[in-house]
Amino acid sequence: MEIRIALAGNPNSGKTTLFNALTGSNQFVGNWPGVTVEKKEGKLKKHDDVIVTDLPGIYSLSPYTLEEVVARNYLIGERPNAILNIIDGSNLERNLYLTTQLTELGIPVVCAINMMDVVTKNGDKINVEELSRQLGCDVVPISALKGTGINEAAEAAIRAAKGAKTVPMHKFSGPVEHAIAHIEEAAVHSMPEEQQRWYAIKLFERDSKAIEQLKLSSATLGHIEQDIAAVEKEMDDDAESIITNERYLAIADIIKACYKKKNAGGLTVSDKIDKVVTNRWLGLPIFAAVMFLIYYISMVTVGASATDWANDGLFGDGWHLFGIGSAEAEEAGEEFGDAANVIDAFLGDELGEDFSADDVRTALSSIDASATADYTLEDEETLETEDVTYTYNDLKDAVEVFAKYDGEEPDPADYGVWVPGVPALIDKILCDSEGEPRIPDWLYGLIQDGIVAGVGAVLGFVPQMLVLFLLLAFVEACGYMARVAFVLDRIFRRFGLSGKSFIPILIGTGCGIPGIMASRTIENERDRRMTIMTTTFIPCGAKVPFIAMIAGAIFGGSALISTGSYFIGMAAIIVSGIILKKTKMFAGDPAPFVMELPAYHWPTLGNVLRSMWERGWSFIKKAGTIILL
Question: Cα 534–540–541 angle (5° rounding)?
Fold first, then answer.
């Protein structure tokens, strides 16, 4: 029998990290019906009959955001066999708010207390046994980042799916419990017993979705409204706020019983770092410096070196294995090239294109010792030119060098183990011993100049893009990018955008499509539409080859052009925001910015590499399709 387990938890609780650890590569990604929220499912490792569903990160089952609607509809509509609730152990109080709601659904719940390594490191203590007793469900300590306790949590969820339903242990105050009991009897007594309490609480909160689903008569609704109004009058608050306060009172009792904090009220390391990186005056310069460093490393230093190898080696003439002999071969090539330039300056017209070392020696005798020759040098990469003047002595030295190499350009294979590039390997297949193609010229040109050159143009930039995506994945995973969204909200808000718009923009540097899809996390529809319209202004991976081509052809290959293009893209977004803000469709103030700032931590290599590969593969597919077609 197939078992379905739902992973539920707050954003940044480590839920997706746990999902990846539980399912590995056995994942399938789609969208939830009717919405653009991503749906991830996967088979549990070594358990093909267990399907794990990664629900969107939510704080509550109240249907305010699209993610909460999706998660709630799945839990009450599909009713999985068990819920594995991921709780951030370093922020227990806030995470337990969702837990108190999940235990009311009548579905078996297992709580996985994540980040226990952080809790232990901070000197805090969580009494897992007491927490289990207080919640009325199994509680398993884990560290999704380090992979500890994961199998135990999965096995506990499987056992729960085959066992009894979870019964919530927390109770509300007398007037609230009395009203909920009346609602259960009046409106939901015909429903399965394990679901009655959850629906009764939702009716008490005047939840429109629950009221619509139950299709209650006006008489029943009137009876329920009398009970709710009586409690509101007695407790001097609205029903929804009453339930919220009651939950936090219950959570406070749970925390008091099972959680001991070492330094209550003290600043954590993350708090101390945030005092600097989110500072009103320092936040933006720090962000600009970090992003410039990332793009500089990717486009100019490490990434550029890797791309040069791919372009000049893998899809060029070839390369020396392990780089042994490459310096000597390069030096010899430059020496021979300089000598050839001098000879061409003095004797080019006389000797023509094909000549030997003996021909050069013979021609040298006809040159006057006081003669000079002007020559124009051109840089192959930057296309910059330089006028030089050679003397007779330069010619004599050049003739000696030319004779040293017997008039032939140095063979790289003479200096080390030479690995030919892809074009050379294709030539060996398509051409005979004389170097003539065995196939029609048009087909040879299509293969070498079209397919091989096209694929090379894409893959040549892959190392550069992978370095970029690796660095971006690191700063995202460590928690810094959430701070950037907070810092930029002050600026974006002036131009009609939300700080949350930065996340889609950042993702858009890899590919515009997932960047646009990421805008679904913006609750306000006006802000979401504006973000969708402006996200693609930031250069994505597929545009980088064209930026590099323009930089090389027009700006002499300046490294600042490729790096500066991202800042130009950001400026275009801001200007567009100002213009769109003037239109009727986008007029109005942006929605308030509320976003959780997770604690800083070192990300795992696996998670960073996975993110890098996903964006890199998206770049290969996107850019490859454009360039090849």
Answer: 175
Give the pLDDT confidence score for residue 309 in this predicted structure. 82
**Cα separation, 227 vs 246, whole angstroms:** 17
Residue 424's CB: how many other CB atoms inside 10 A? 13
List, for residues 220-268, the tens digit of each pLDDT value. 888 889 989 999 899 988 888 899 999 999 999 999 999 988 766 667 7
pTM above 0.90, yes or no: no
Q: Give CA–CA dist 224/220, Å, rounded.
A: 6
Question: Looking at domain 3-161, does it have CATH number 3.40.50.300?
Answer: yes
- For residue range 560-592, list pLDDT tens digits in order: 776 677 778 778 887 887 788 778 777 766 666
d(CA 598, CA 481): 10
Q: Which residues pair with 259 in a beta bridge?
A: 126
Cα 399 to Cα 144, 339, 373: the distances in Å are 69, 7, 15
Comma-separated ranges of CATH 1.10.287.1770 domains in the chain: 174-260
- φ and ψ at residue 83, rounded to 5 degrees: -120, 125
How far apart (Å, rounded) are the C-alpha atoms in residues 256 and 260? 8
Mean pLDDT, to the nearest integer, of 586-613?
Answer: 77
Indicate where the chain has its CATH 3.40.50.300 domain(s).
Answer: 3-161
Contacts 24+ apart (CB under 8 A), 207-216: 207/62, 207/63, 209/63, 209/72, 214/187, 214/188, 216/187
Question: Which alpha helices (H) appear in 215-356, and where do they start and end?
Answer: 218-235, 239-258, 269-277, 283-299, 302-308, 326-351
CATH for 174-260, among 3.40.1160.10, 1.10.287.1770, 1.10.260.40, 1.10.1040.10?
1.10.287.1770
Q: Give the model confidence (pLDDT) of 48-59 as tens digits.
A: 889 999 998 888
Q: How far is CA 117 from the centre of its chain?
A: 25
Q: Residue 510 has what pLDDT?
A: 64
At a CB cut-off of 8 Å and minimum separation 6, what does 252 contact?
93
Local structure of residue 76 (DSSP, 8 states): I
CB 382 within 8 A of CB 556: yes
DSSP character string of 405-436: TTTSPPPGGGSS-EEE-HHHHHHHHHB-TTS-
